[in-house]
């Protein structure tokens, strides 16, 4: 009989690439991971790994077993959901991952609703960049998370995870309301025509930090317009970005949830670029009562103009 915990380790190795990365993510020692995988090979009766020096890769049998492991883990999530559903009431921790703008604009209202309908649940919110969500969900560090992608930065499907759409936002180009930067077209500042990304090729730009989806989105939007932005500031928090724009420090691309109230000194012009937010969870967990409860609460918390018609 194959041990499910060892199957999970094999699946993680196929995704993370090294035993050290698996050990770090799942709070094991590398030697413990190696021992468990060796035990799995003995259970399977075939070689699952090929070791060359410090490198370890999956054999064809190992890759095939990972495909079966995905199905097994999904069914276990479904079984867990049914067991919870059989109990009366929901209780215990619910670990929620979110990116900062959703943490401010959506999550607090959702938690208020959750407390009214399911007072036994204990939501625990952690800010996390969407790029790190998949590993955190698969490792069991999160139960549900909000993730996003952009028109220029689509997110690939993640093994072992499922998502449901939550909302869609337009992006706007934020520019100082008065005065133009050197090199921008005459009259560009604050005009609908000047809001086209290409009109700001010579302006200083404010982007998110490298490695984030927001940074990649700005870079690719500018490249699609035929130039590479001249970055002056790298800031992740959109309120700070808008304050810098108002101070004449540059232009930036900002999603609707990142704007909030109008900012004096900033002109926002909507662009045909969108950000889509989705609710992510482990495959098979959609029917889990706690996941269903927070999903319902999150949908109700989305501003009406951003909701996706059902």
Automatic annotation (TrEMBL):
**Domain of life, source organism:** Bacteria
- Which Gene3D superfamilies does the UniProt record give? Periplasmic binding protein-like II, Winged helix-like DNA-binding domain superfamily/Winged helix DNA-binding domain
The alphabetized UniProt keywords are: DNA-binding, Transcription, Transcription regulation
Residue span(s) of domain HTH lysR-type? 2-59
CDD domains recorded for this chain?
PBP2_LTTR_like_6 (cd08423)
Q: Does the keyword Acyltransferase apply?
A: no
Give the InterPro entries listed for this entry: LysR_HTH_N, LysR_subst-bd, WH-like_DNA-bd_sf, WH_DNA-bd_sf
| Similarity comment | Belongs to the LysR transcriptional regulatory family.
**Name of the protein described by the UniProt record:** LysR family transcriptional regulator
Native source organism of the sequence: Streptomyces meridianus
Q: Where is the organism placed in the taxonomic lineage, from the top?
A: Bacteria, Bacillati, Actinomycetota, Actinomycetes, Kitasatosporales
């Amino acid at each position: 009989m194959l041990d499910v915990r060892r199957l999970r380790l094999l699946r993680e190795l196929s995704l993370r690439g090294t035993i050290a990365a698996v050990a770090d993510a799942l709070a094991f020692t590398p030697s413990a991971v190696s021992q468990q995988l060796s035990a799995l090979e003995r259970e399977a009766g075939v070689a699952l790994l090929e070791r060359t020096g410090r490198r370890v890769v999956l054999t064809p049998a190992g890759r095939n077993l990972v495909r079966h492991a995905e199905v097994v883990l999904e069914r276990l999530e479904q079984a867990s959901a049914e067991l919870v559903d059989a109990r009366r009431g929901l209780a215990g921790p619910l670990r929620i991952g979110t990116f900062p703008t959703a943490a401010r604009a959506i999550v607090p209202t959702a938690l208020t609703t959750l407390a009214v309908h399911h007072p036994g649940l204990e939501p625990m919110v952690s800010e996390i960049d969407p790029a790190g969500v998949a590993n955190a969900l698969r490792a069991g560090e999160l139960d549900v998370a909000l993730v996003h992608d952009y028109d220029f930065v689509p997110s690939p499907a993640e093994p072992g995870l499922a998502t449901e759409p939550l909302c869609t936002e337009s992006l706007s180009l934020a520019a100082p309301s008065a005065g133009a930067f050197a090199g921008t077209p005459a009259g560009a500042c604050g005009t609908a025509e000047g809001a086209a990304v290409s009109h700001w090729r010579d302006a200083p730009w404010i982007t998110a930090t490298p490695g984030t989806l927001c940074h990649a989105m700005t870079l690719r939007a500018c490249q699609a317009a035929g130039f590479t932005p001249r970055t002056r500031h790298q800031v992740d928090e959109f309120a700070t970005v808008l304050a810098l724009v108002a101070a004449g420090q540059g232009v930036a691309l900002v999603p609707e949830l990142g704007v909030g109230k109008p900012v004096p000194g900033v002109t926002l012009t909507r662009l045909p670029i969108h950000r889509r937010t989705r609710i992510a969870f482990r495959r098979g967990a959609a029917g889990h009562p706690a996941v269903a409860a927070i999903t319902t609460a999150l949908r109700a918390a989305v501003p009406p103009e951003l909701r996706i018609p059902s």
